[in-house]
Amino acid sequence: MSRAPLILCLVLAGCGGGDLELNPFAGTKKQGIALETDAGGLAITGSGITVPGGQRIDFGRAPSGVIAVLERELGPGRALGLTNCPAAVRQQIAWGDLVLTFTDERFVGWRGADGAAGQTCGVLA
Q: Nearest 5 degrees, angle CA 111-CA 79-CA 95?
């Protein structure tokens, strides 16, 4: 009797343990979140949050993760130009009045109706 099917089953069983990360954003459904801006980034609140104290999108997170969450929850962002941006800022994306700025590797700032925090681009007059 060949051991190959048994070994294959054991390997596949070891891979199928499910999502080990406690990620409230896993999946593709909208979570019913609300965003609150603050000095450290964005606080996430709303009915879709099940973790006590809510969740955060702090400065320093990878752009791909931040953008994916916001696009799923708020729809596609609008890319803005980089005029009047610090040299390290490589993209800025707007969702309504909320504009987030990113370096190649990190979420570094926001600006909106309530002010700004982190590294942001100057607004054209």
A: 50
